[in-house]
Amino acid sequence: MSVSTEAASHSHDVHADHPEYMRHQFDDMDQQNDAANLGMWLFLLTEVMFFGGFFLGYSIYRTEYYDSFVNGSHHLDVFLGGLNTVALITSSVTMAFAVRAAQLGKKNHIIMFLVMTLVLGVVFMVNKYLEYSHKWHDNLIPGLDFIWTEPGDPRTIQLFYAFYFCMTGTHGLHVLIGLGLIIWLVIRTQQNKFTPQYYAPIENFGLYWHFVDLVWIFLFPLLYLIGGLH
Amino acid sequence: MSQHAPHSENTPHIASVANYLTIFSILLVLTAVTVWVAFLELGPLNTPVAMAIASVKAIVVILYFMHLKFSPGQTKLAAAAAIFWLLILLIVTFFDYVGRTWQDNPVGW
Q1: Does A29 reside within a domain?
Q2: How do residues A130-150 score in pLDDT, each as one tens digit?
Q3: What is the pTM assigned to this prediction?
Q4: In chain A, which residue's Cα lies nearest the Cα of B91?
Q5: A48 vs chain B: nearest CA distance in angstroms?
């Protein structure tokens, strides 16, 4: 009886020592923030290796079947791809501004910039949907419905489209997950969960979102811009 | 961009609006340059040029949007490790693949 009372009062004291958002195991917020930052970067390291496998496979087969990759690439819509590049880069800026607003403790600005990031992400996904549905109607779905009527070897051009769908699909999945997380961040911001002392979720999501932008920065020239434009 | 207050332990680096807009315009210009360069006939140089531009964009995003320039040393180490391991994955495997003597299938297969 007395032991449990003591334990309860002890844990109460520990809570009283620090704000709600600071975890027990850290000495201070600097240490907690550095740990959160390092953890996020280590996660991004695994993401780099995850996408690295795609880029490696792409490089090898592109070297092997360069002409087919050029033929396949010419069928992609450079305008939509370029538009999506601009959309993602702009969304990275709005996200950077959301983190900045969090650092300054401006709640309304956080929400405004998060919603702008969300809208640009939705624009990206709508463009992606248009591109995918166009390919569906053109019978360019590898393994399922692939009919190539233009010059070139259909088998290896199909390989290019397999890489196109795997790489942009995995990237698009990351964007979709990001859109879900933005909605969660908007709700948490609305609930006053973040302060200039504690905004690690917004900052770490920003790192994730910039990483997704980075992947697209490489995907765009590699998939859409091979062998010049004709 | 050189007018930032030095990063101290207790105050996070807060970049100016102008700083972010400068980075934004650099990224937009480089995107336009990428598309423009793709139109040019540079022969075997097209891909290296495209990758070089993409790498510059990546470095700018990592340093300024992801604040790596102002991050603690341990974070810089994690980022360097990511690039280092990616290069091992790409370069070593790629050269093994293209440098290997591939033999024809044996007769009867």
Answers
A1: no
A2: 999 999 999 999 988 999 988
A3: 0.88
A4: A56
A5: 7
